[in-house]
Write a structure and sequence with these properties.
The chain is an alpha+beta fold and 318 residues long. It contains 6 helices and 20 strands. Helix content is 19%, strand content 34%.
Length: 318
């Protein structure tokens, strides 16, 4: 498993979903001469690689990195005391957990109940991150509104004015760097070098809609990442994904829905699809890849990446 670290150097997207990363890599990969149609076709039965979404991280002066992972979506926690109610209320604001906590949850060493009841004593919440790692206080993400004004070049009239959100990444202490990271698992090692090459081109160009004005710039580094636990009767997704059929999980799936709908470069809206968010937990399937790639436009063709990068999960309440 490979980790890709993006350290923003200007206004940057607030987050990077797995489908956004895949789409950007495919767009620049086509310019580099890669067989993108062949790549997409392989996701029917033999995915060349799987991607996570982008999550927060903090780079330390000694070269180590603190990673934060999506908070797991689980069945409702049964509250029995006032203290538990207060802790659960605080936990509902959590978006990420520390790497140590995440690995322990995946392996079953701790449960979500342990995490909730430990808030305020062992675990602390800062900026939506719940962890015992003090590095959470060093992750700084300043949210900014980004105005967009769509101009009709013939009439010079303003046809659409809207706002999106961007972010500046910093740190509470000198020498530390906040940023995002995502994981890639290459089922076909031959695609690792082309994928990295596409990311290098994105490093030069940037992410997002405001690249021409200097936004979306980042510094890219990569390194091998210690594999996450894979054993367990359940799985947790590190990606947004589109299941083939929710019924395949029986009643053992817990998720939030997110909508994905974008506009093509020529201004035509693509088909809207609904995806299951990062942190979705579900009963393990038969070992095959989970998710699918969906066609969202006919001509020219466009797809929405909806494959899940997962790991084992045993951290339910019990």
């Amino acid at each position: 498993m490979q980790a890709f670290y993006l350290t923003p150097e200007s206004l940057f997207p607030r987050g990077l979903a797995s489908n956004t990363i895949f789409g950007a890599v495919c767009a620049v990969g086509a310019e580099l001469g890669y067989d993108i149609d062949g790549l997409i076709a392989r996701y029917l039965d033999d995915p060349p690689f799987l991607l996570s979404s982008g999550f927060p991280c903090v780079h330390h002066t000694d070269g180590t990195v603190s990673h934060f992972f999506p908070v797991p979506i689980t069945p409702p926690y049964p509250v029995t005391t006032k203290a538990e109610y207060i802790a659960l209320k605080a936990y509902k604001k959590v978006r990420y957990v520390g790497e140590e906590e995440f690995r322990n949850l995946c392996g079953g060493e701790i449960t979500v109940a342990d995490l909730i009841t430990g808030i305020g004593s062992r675990y602390h919440i800062h900026g939506g991150i719940c962890t015992a790692d003090p590095a959470a206080t060093d992750f700084i993400q300043g949210i900014r509104e980004v105005p967009h004004n769509q101009i009709n070049r013939r009439s010079m009239a303003s046809e659409q004015f809207y706002h999106t959100e961007g972010a500046f990444y910093g740190s509470a202490r000198d020498g530390l760097r906040s940023g995002l990271f995502f994981l890639a698992e290459f089922g076909d090692p031959a695609w690792e070098q082309p994928f990295t090459g596409a990311m290098r081109l994105l490093e030069d160009r940037g992410f997002g809609q405001k690249k021409s004005s200097g936004a979306g710039k980042f510094h890219l580094t990569t390194e091998r990442f210690e594999s996450l636990p894979q054993e367990g009767r359940y799985r947790i997704s590190l990606s947004r994904f589109i299941p083939n059929d929710l019924r395949e999980f029986g009643e053992e799936i817990w998720y939030d829905l997110v909508s994905a709908r974008g506009r093509s470069a020529d201004g035509v809206m693509k088909k809207q699809v609904f995806m299951l968010s990062e942190g979705t937990t579900f009963a393990a399937s038969n070992g095959t890849a989970v998710g699918k790639v969906v066609h969202v436009r006919g001509t020219p063709p466009a797809v929405e990446y909806g494959m899940a990068l997962t790991c084992g999960w045993e951290g339910f309440h019990g």
